[in-house]
Each structure stands twice: as C-alpha cells, then as structure tokens.
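Help needed: design a sequence for this.
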C-alpha cells in the first residue's frame, strides 16, 4: 500500500460521494457490498487489467485493455504514443476504466486523465518516483524499452468511483 492518510481520506470521500450520487438501482446493489478506501488499496496491488474506454473524434466509444496500477488512490496506466487510445486521450481526456475479477470484484471509475510524461512539456512532479516503480515492477529496468519515447503514462483523476465486492472477507483475507 502506497497511500498516505490524505490519499485514503480523499479516496473514501470519493467512494462515499459517488455512491450517494448513484441511482437507487446501483445503490441497492452496491450498498453493503463494497469496500472502504483502505480495503480497496489492500486489494488493488500490483498490475490490474483494466478495460479503458475512450471516445473517438466522431463521438464513438472505444474500449481497450491496459495494465493498470492503483497508486495513491488513483489508476495509472500506459500505452504507446502511436496507439489510437493515446490520440483519443490527447484530444478528449475524459475516460472510464473498469477492473473486474469475475463476480468477486468490480471497480468502476470515471474521470479525466493527466499525461505523466509528456514529450512536449515538463513531466508530472512525481513522475521520477512513478517511473522507478514501473521499471521495478516490469523487471527490465532501462532495457524493456525507451521509457522516454516508447510509452506514455497517464493518471486518471476520478470524479466518480464505485466498488462492488459481495464477499469482503474473501477479498481482504491474507
């Protein structure tokens, strides 16, 4: 868990406000079947496969898979700068992601992406720390690919997030 107490407080506030703003139908499913911010950060460790939804210039939805990392209460993911999703996000930074583990867990998030390592301007202040995390995680360090030119990383700043977890004890058992 890499979250600070402030990260956890912000995430819990987001989870609570998102659920309160949801439809009665969704609340009837999620209430009593969700996780706290602290539980969620304990469950979302390492790489999580995400379904990423972007929008084309014609307003058509597109979905693709990305490696997601839940760090400091936010999703982080990367792709090739030449990928269609990178073009979509550069022009229209609104995005949604879903992470599902069968019927055991569903994490659904809507927000706006920030490019962490843009080629045309200064990187995010925490990019060096995140880059070290990614290099360590993927195990190939500097040899995996050209981290400055072959990959663009994003952070999804969520404005809505909800979690479905019907068996909290099963997910949080160590």
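Sure. Designed sequence:
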């Amino acid at each position: 868990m890499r979250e600070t107490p402030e990260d956890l407080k912000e995430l819990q506030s987001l989870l609570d406000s998102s659920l309160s703003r949801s439809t009665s139908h969704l609340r009837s499913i999620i209430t009593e079947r969700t996780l706290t911010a602290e539980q969620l950060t304990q469950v979302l460790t390492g790489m999580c496969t995400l379904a990423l939804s972007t929008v084309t210039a014609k307003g058509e939805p597109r979905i693709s898979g990305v490696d997601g990392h839940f760090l400091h209460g936010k999703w982080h993911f990367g792709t090739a700068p030449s990928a269609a999703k990178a073009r979509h996000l550069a022009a229209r930074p609104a995005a949604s992601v879903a992470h599902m583990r069968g019927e055991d867990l569903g994490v659904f998030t809507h927000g706006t992406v920030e490019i962490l390592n843009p080629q045309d301007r200064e990187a995010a202040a925490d990019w060096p720390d995140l880059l070290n995390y990614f290099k360590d995680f993927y195990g190939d360090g500097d040899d995996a690919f050209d981290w400055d030119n072959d990959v663009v990383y994003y952070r999804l700043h969520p404005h809505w997030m909800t979690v479905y977890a019907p068996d909290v004890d099963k997910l949080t058992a160590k």
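The two ends are 14 Å apart (CA to CA).
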